[in-house]
Design goal:
Elements: H1 10-17, E1 43-50, H2 57-76, E2 84-91, H3 96-109, E3 114-116, H4 121-134, E4 138-139, E5 157-158, H5 164-175, E6 186-192, H6 195-210, E7 214-221, H7 229-238, E8 242-245, H8 249-262, E9 268-271, H9 278-284, E10 292-296, H10 306-317, H11 323-340, H12 347-356, E11 358-361, E12 364-367, E13 382-387, E14 390-395
Parallel strand pairs: 1-2, 1-3, 3-4, 4-5, 6-7, 6-8, 8-9
Antiparallel strand pairs: 10-13, 11-12, 13-14
Length: about 400
């Protein structure tokens, strides 16, 4: 991936003159109300459009729950330097065009200090483009796609979330949890016909080949595909033992259903993105067992407010949060620390903090590079596995992580 200076922005030079330092984490717990109001000197206003309906709603609503829980806990703890946080949310219906319209409506009617992103690269990039035009700090998770972030045009966009390089490094880490004598060697890549699909396929191909794995198949498909029989047959014929892909949730559910019906099953399956939401288990039940995912957070992560998150979620909703709840909560933590570290709640001040400081959230410790991405190698890209209806952290191997279940049965 190109990391040359040709795409560097003014942010590159701001970072070159700034000194990085750690911001202490604010304690968090509690509840508040959302929406309405025009903001003001005693209110920090965050605008967000997320897919509450449409193709990506299953993951969008879980991420939104993390956003809301983070804001509730900030306000219960007294806000940010005494300022209450107000989260104004609209449904983008999984549509980038509607997302822009919703953000326009929010910013026209509210004095917005920060915009939060939606789910998936097309929606996140649509939000980024709008925020860049308006000069409003934009923070987003749920996008691993590196290429559009490296184009040199973004001064206000920050994505505290693992990237393609981190996800593919985590895939290698997952496979290395399997005893060498049992470890699958023949890898198949199903490549979604999209920018991120190509980026992920190329990165998997390179990283796993360099690690000594034999990539015996790399074939593409279109988003929304309803028939994976050809890909399944090709995988079977090639002797694929480990299958990796990054399908959208409905596509991944369809693919897993058809894999189960085919009589052929690789020993290891990683469906990044598709297996993140509860919808995976609701649709597949035991047929979805032991598939791995790389959402960047999972129950079992430790430190940086993870215990508080689990306790608050259990108190508010009962049980353990799904992975996208923690991912969304991480965005609230990042925003809180950025605003708390700024000289004033103003765009330039918040951006300066984002450029110069280190952040400590439930996904790990990181600072932003000149492209607004976490510095390379700082995030472990937490990976989880479905076990009988639960998403269990298996990588990295923290004290609370589970053992990787292998092979798929």
């Amino acid at each position: 991936m190109d990391t040359s200076d040709t795409g560097r922005t003014r942010r590159s030079y701001l970072k070159a003159t700034g000194a990085a330092s750690a911001i202490s984490l604010t304690g968090l717990s509690g509840c508040t109300a959302f929406g309405g109001g025009d903001g003001g000197s005693d209110t920090v206003v965050i605008g967000a459009a997320v897919p509450e309906t449409g193709r990506l709603s299953s993951v969008g609503n879980e991420m939104l729950r993390g956003y809301e829980l983070g804001v509730e806990m900030i306000n219960e703890n007294g806000g940010i330097d005494g300022q209450e946080v107000e989260l104004v949310v609209r449904d983008d219906e999984s549509d980038p065009t509607l997302l822009r319209q919703q953000l326009q409506e929010i910013t026209s009617n509210h004095d917005v200090d920060v915009i939060w992103g939606s789910f998936s690269s097309p929606l996140v990039m649509a939000g980024s483009a709008y925020a860049e035009e308006q000069g409003i700090p934009f923070l987003a998770v749920a996008t691993c796609f590196e290429k559009p972030l490296r184009d040199g045009s973004k001064e206000w966009t920050y994505t505290p979330f693992p990237k393609t390089r981190d996800v593919t490094r985590a895939t290698r880490g997952l496979l290395e949890l399997i005893p060498e004598s049992e470890r699958p060697q023949r890898v198949g890549i199903w490549e979604e016909n999209s920018g991120w699909g190509e980026e992920m396929a190329e990165a998997w191909d390179t990283k796993l080949s360099e690690a000594g794995y034999d990539v015996v198949m790399r074939e593409s498909y279109n988003a929304g595909n309803q028939d994976f029989s050809t890909l399944i047959s090709q995988s079977d014929s090639a002797g694929v033992e480990a299958l990796v892909a990054c399908p959208q949730p409905p596509d991944g559910i369809t693919a897993m259903t058809q894999l189960r019906e085919s009589g052929y099953m690789p020993e290891f399956v990683e469906f990044v993105r598709a297996s993140d939401p509860q919808a995976w288990w609701s649709a597949l039940n035991e047929a979805g067992n032991y598939v791995t995912m790389c959402p960047g957070w999972a129950p079992g992560m430790t430190g940086n407010g993870n215990e508080e998150l689990l306790n608050a979620y259990d108190e508010a909703h009962g049980g353990t949060p799904r992975v996208m709840v923690g991912v969304g909560y991480n965005l609230a933590q990042t925003t809180e620390q950025a605003i708390a570290g700024a000289d004033e709640v103003a765009p330039e001040g918040i951006r300066s903090t984002l450029d110069d400081e280190e952040f400590n959230t439930v996904i790990g410790d990181f600072g932003f590079d000149e492209y607004g991405m976490p510095e390379q190698g700082q995030l472990s890209a937490a990976s989880a596995q479905w076990w009988n209806g639960e998403q269990r952290l298996v990588y990295p191997q923290t004290d609370s992580a589970a053992d990787l279940q292998f092979p798929i049965e």
